[in-house]
User: Fold these one by one.
Assistant:
Number 1:
Amino acid sequence: MKQRLFKSHVLALLSILILVKAPMARAQSAPGVDGKQDVDGAAVSDKHLDKVELAKSKNLHLATANGAMQDAQTLRKQIDTASAAQRPELLSKMNADYTTAIAEYREALLDTTIGDENAIVALGLIGVVRNGLITQEKAVDMLVQDKNLPVVLSNLGAAYDGAGRFQDAITTLGQAAILKPEARTYMQLGTDLAQLGKTSEATATCEKILALDPTANNMQAGCYKNVAIVLMNTGKFESAVSPLQAATKLNPLDATSWKLLGDALVNKITTMQEHGKTCYVLAPGTLEAYQKYLELEPTGFYAAQVKEILNGLTAYAKCAQS
């Protein structure tokens, strides 16, 4: 059974629902426009009205996008417990919600003005930075005129991830991280890099989380855990050991990480000949990982399975010690 990835972007959604109110309020309270009759005044008034309409349009797109993301997340939870017959319809609805969210976030970016350009055009500055034509500091200074832009990009990246468009997610989350580095953005970015097999880049991205926020132990642990889950879902159990060890060290109270570590270590079992019979040698920490899971969740979802595994592994260990 494939493991479900840990998601953090509900935080971003809640943040943006508050943040998007600011641009509209500023536009509505802009002084010195009403009542001017001269040509220049009319031009200023028209420009002000354009900004008001753009702010209203942007907020509508963001509200629709956020709603679609929340619906998709609800459907994802339902899929986890749905029957085989129910899953196709739920998956179809979830994918449709992610598609809606992507389209609406992109429309919101089109309604986000950066100087005389919309945000999608202005984001090309980041590509210019990579080519060395202007400094990153100058590009960021131009783009962060809209404080919501990094949050919109972060949420758009999460929507791309939900739709399975991992390269688009990586590009978008990378833009968000340049503008405003945040722990949740790096967590999602690390997960998506792992989805494309870029494991070294993924773990390096996870490492940035604690450097950015020394209190984000659980977020960094979740990032490592996600990298490991991606590896395990593609059969790379041994490669998953290191990130899971990091995850359990950062968040030792996460029972699922201990169970996954046990699963990864089981795949490192080797054999040896002893007294004319074949014995199995367990990797260090295998039994302890499963025992830690049961200590934390003695009646948890995997408890019966873990007990059964431990019974078998204990017999292997005795064989190796005889």
Number 2:
Amino acid sequence: MATNSQKRSFIEGEIDSKFHRQSQKRSPFGIAMGFFATIGRGWKMSKLSMSVVKKDPELLVYMLICGFLSLVAMIGMSMPQYLKQSWAIDSAGQMTPAYMGFVFAGYMVISIVVTFWNSAIVANSHIRLTGGDPKFMDGFSAAMSKIHIIVIWGIIAGTVGLLLKLLNQAAREREGGAAIVSMILTAIGAAIWWMMTFFMIPHMIIEGKGVGDSLKSSKQMFYKSWGENITSGMGIGLITGFFVIVIALLSFVMIVALGPLWIVGVVIGALGISLAIAWGNAAEQVAVTALYLYSKNGEMPQIYQDLGMKQFHMTINPPTA
């Protein structure tokens, strides 16, 4: 049995240890260490999310279909202007109101297409991350069952995205300090919108909520795990960017080496870059689904634990001061 002096020493040691931990958290060094730890966890999660895509290649197929349909829509939007059709371009070379409406409708179609296939990825990821073995039609069927919500959200997201793009272009056309301030404000607005909608699709597809409830839940869930959300997205973007650069360099070497057959290098490069981007985009949705499950359950999905990520050190219910 412990003596009083031993008990007192133990209590004093615990107090000192707790004080040291709290001091470290408040110190610049502790804050910096916490930041880099969060970056490390996000980077690791990025790699694990990409490995999940490897297990389910249909996720890549989803993204390739999404990319193809989006490309078709973009070509369809630009053809009237390219052909200088009278209903699209006036005598001064400006877009007519009718063509502006046509382009807006095209943007909405692209936004709906992207939302639909991202929803299919989230649905299949949820099956995989909860122990199931998803098939191609599982994600497609899940997205089709929520098509009405997907269309509504696709139009909203597309409209906001288009407005942010127009504001950014307007900011670039300004001069001096006004241009800088406008660009900063536009960037802040885009960042806030991204944060608020980070978990939109899981709430719509997995929980079956409407657009309003999903937006509210998405915002609340993001603020519980903002560091992990941001760094996981950064990690996936950096990995994807690295592979894109490598593929582009190899393609350039092939183009130079093949001489008259340079087109072969172009085709191989285009296919490689498309595959890398599709892989990265699919991994982003897998990471969103994994973080959604972690925020809901307080633990990483089993497949992440099997690959070495036992926990994410995320506070589900942060203590109040």
Number 3:
Amino acid sequence: MRNQSTTFISDFQSENMKFLFAMLLIPLLIIPVFAESQTLPTEKGTLDVKLSYDKIEPNIQTKINIDFINPQTKKIQEHIDYTVLVSKGGETVFGPIPLTHTSVGSVKIPIEFNLGEGVYTMIFEIEGILFQPIPKEKVSFDVTVGDAYAQPDNDKPISDEKNGCLIATAAYGSEMAPQVQQLREIRDNTILKTNSGIAFMTGFNQIYYSFSPSISDLEREQPIFKEIVKIGLTPMLSSLSLLNHVNIDSEQEMIGYGISIILLNIGMYIGIPLVGILKLYQFRKN
């Protein structure tokens, strides 16, 4: 009987390990990496260009994430030839860089906005796609630096959707809900303090917005589903909150604490249901 139970436990854990790990990542996907994003088309609509960045302070180097997006497929367009120029009041701050090629369609450019607070202009010129030259197309962004930091007017209609924590907000009813604030603190104070955390959040940020609007809409339309999401998030929130009470100063420590959180969740998501399954198994066996 003991050998049968041991084999049953082993098989059950093996089959559900991947599912558990995916569930553990849900809270990390609820909040996007960047506080600000803008997406605008080029002059003739050949490409969409997306900027993403955290709050920008003057005289501090900031990494600007740039995605070149195919407007038909809504996916990253590979092999783009472009130049970029940043200025304020007609005075150049960055560039213009020589014609540059990106094979992956996404780049990160560190820029120091060194002319004080205010609105800077960031201009892209696209000159080639998939190794084929095209007539030059421009797109211009207004980037606000300093305390005046705000969503630009041309992006206001979608600011709530693109910058909000859609799933958590729909589940808990407000962006100011303690659970949503907790997730934001975990992201800012822990996950994004490590290179592996930054890479993970950056990679999944775009994926998040491919499904989160549908899920949040379903939560608002189906109260039962909303409660299911809340129940699913609650144990993970409890375990992830432990990361707010430890000092993580290295990648190794982040991995160590991450494994500990996974083991804790195994106890909650597998251990407790497994006890019930074994009790049922024993009852039927007898």
